[in-house]
Amino acid sequence: MTSIGFLGVGTISEAVVRAMCARPGRADRILLSPRSAERSQSLAEEFDQCVVMETNQEVIDHSDIVVLGMRPQQLDEAVAALEFRHDQVIASFIAGTPPSGLAPLVAPAATICQLIPLPPITLHRGPLVVCPGVPEVLAAFDGLGDLIVLDDEARIRVLSCASAIMSTYFELQNHVIDWITDHGIDEAIASRYIRSELDGLAAVGQVTPDSQRRDLPGDFQTKGGLNERVRAVLLDQGWFDALPGELTEIYDNAVLRTPGGQ
Ligand SMILES: NC(=O)c1ccc[n+]([C@@H]2O[C@H](COP(=O)([O-])OP(=O)(O)OC[C@H]3O[C@@H](n4cnc5c(N)ncnc54)[C@H](OP(=O)(O)O)[C@@H]3O)[C@@H](O)[C@H]2O)c1
Predict the structure, then answer these.
(1) What are the tens digits of pLDDT across the range 205-228?
(2) Largest alpha-carbon pair distance within the chain?
(3) Residues with CB under 6 A from ligand 1
């Protein structure tokens, strides 16, 4: 049985804890830090696996894996007076601080990895980046989605920035639904239709072999048909160049953690 301690039980930690506790056949012990008392307490009441500890140090002392789930600007203060052990594994959700940046803060613990969980983890879906692929962490987070292992921490920023398409995706979804309702169809039907269409397309995207991924746009349009007309106009207008352009902009310029952690 693995003991997994969470320091910082906020939005993303709660999503991950809920996903962990919903996995069948797992008996991990989940130790929660006492701050955010209401959230930690309700997790402990809901799941037998979860226990709220009295202090952050107690979480560390009883954990095989310590998950850091606070915001970047809270990190330095949170870990300042804590003592880690050399034999425990540190798994961090904190954006902008790679394992090498965490090392001096959690010494003598030396097995450190960064994770990028995304909200669909609550449904055991979506990617979960793990860098590097520490075996204990891969085992502890198994079943929570598609574990994407990166070996080079210098590349974490690429996937962090690439994940910034979530709200745009839902904006796209809602614009098409609104267009349908503007044309006289009931919102419930419009919503069901488009969300089901997107679900079906995502499923096709998942089962299509990588070698055929680039064929999909052509496969899903008829020569001279409606899909081809819409895509051609959007391509012509630079619609699809705008997206990687903006990803490059945030990759080059966005501050994920400012110097000094402010
Ligand atoms: N949200 C996402 O989708 C997402 C995805 C990937 C990665 N992340 C990363 O995950 C981290 C957490 O994000 P979040 O959205 O979950 O933030 P959040 O909801 O603000 O959660 C942070 C939690 O840490 C607690 N905390 C702060 N200092 C603490 C301390 N000294 N001891 C114990 N707990 C402490 C906070 O308590 P208080 O509320 O009392 O301050 C809060 O409950 C961030 O570093 C973010 O970069 C988030």
Answers:
(1) 999 999 999 999 999 999 999 999
(2) 67
(3) 7-13, 33, 35-36, 56, 69-72, 74, 78, 93-95, 116-117, 119
